[in-house]
Design a protein that fits this description.
9 strands; alpha+beta; 42% strand
Amino acid sequence: MMYKIKFLVLVTLIGLSLYACKQENMTSENQKTSLMKYGFPLEINTPENASFIKNKSGATDHLIITNNKDFNLQINMADAVSYSLTEVKTRERENIKTNPFFQKILEDYDDGFLYEYETPNGLAYDFRIFKLQGSKTYTFQSGITGQFSEKDVKYMIKSIR
């Protein structure tokens, strides 16, 4: 009887360990990173080997976080023009839909959306996630220097949450 209990406990522990390791792209190499030293009062999960580039364009601060592979996240911080997340999201969604390469919204979230667009090389994916914090709006999107698969974009979205 004691042998059966030990065996069941062992099987359960192995099963839980395997389940915990199955997280798509988010591996033990990812770490919770504070972005405060770049002037962004946020924390996200980043790949261990990520590099950070901060720049400014007019009144908007930009932070690019990349591992030069499947993670290239851009965060834009600007003064809030609205304190309604729904309004911010709707305005940006309508703006993106005017792009002639836009195809469709694939996933719609309370705080953003994932969409598909056409490129000369086929379909690519991008997203917008918004956070309103204090007097600032934070817009998360994939980096502008690449084209990403749906899997890559979902990896970046998961890092924010």
